User: Which sequence fits this backbone?
């Protein structure tokens, strides 16, 4: 059995595309996935599954969710071993966290080339992209500069497309426990 993490994009935001986590859990269990746990209402789940191509499994989950909830839900998935690698790399170790600092990881659906010079800092210094890997992007948002999460996501989506999903690093920390 392989342990996976799944991240759903664009659900439970502003009362739209509602996906109750209890129903998500049951849907995944009905697919034969085991030891399913959900985390937060933003669409995070962990489960165990028999060895299967991750692309095939992602497509199966997306199809099951569309059937269950009646709308398309973009699904990004990683093996837990990959999340453990990401966590162990301590991508934010040089960042001093204050009440205004937000640490984010963006999961990419494919390898991207970017025109941005990484590390990247926005002109107003509110948004920094620290590191780009084939499947993830690590960024920092400084709320004290007058920008918010929506501003940071706009830059990321413009450069990397809409088939990405971003999580606060705290979510990854909780998944590691």
Assistant:
């Amino acid at each position: 059995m392989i342990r996976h993490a799944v991240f759903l994009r664009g659900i439970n935001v502003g009362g739209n595309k509602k996906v109750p986590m209890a129903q998500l859990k049951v849907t995944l269990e009905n697919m034969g996935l085991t030891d399913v746990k959900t985390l937060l209402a933003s669409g995070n789940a962990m489960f165990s599954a028999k060895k299967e191509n991750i692309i095939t499994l992602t497509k199966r989950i997306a199809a099951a969710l569309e059937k269950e909830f009646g709308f398309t839900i973009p699904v990004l998935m990683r093996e837990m071993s990959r999340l453990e690698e990401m966590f162990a790399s301590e991508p934010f170790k040089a960042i001093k966290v204050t009440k205004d600092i937000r640490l984010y990881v963006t999961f990419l659906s494919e390898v991207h080339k970017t025109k941005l010079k990484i590390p990247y800092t926005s002109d107003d210094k509110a948004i920094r992209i620290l590191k780009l890997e084939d499947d993830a992007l690590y960024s920092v948002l400084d709320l004290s500069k007058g920008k918010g999460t929506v501003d940071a996501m706009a830059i990321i989506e413009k450069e990397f497309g809409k088939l990405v999903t971003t999580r606060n690093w705290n979510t990854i920390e909780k998944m590691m426990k």
Summary: The two ends are 19 Å apart (CA to CA). The chain has five helices and nine strands.
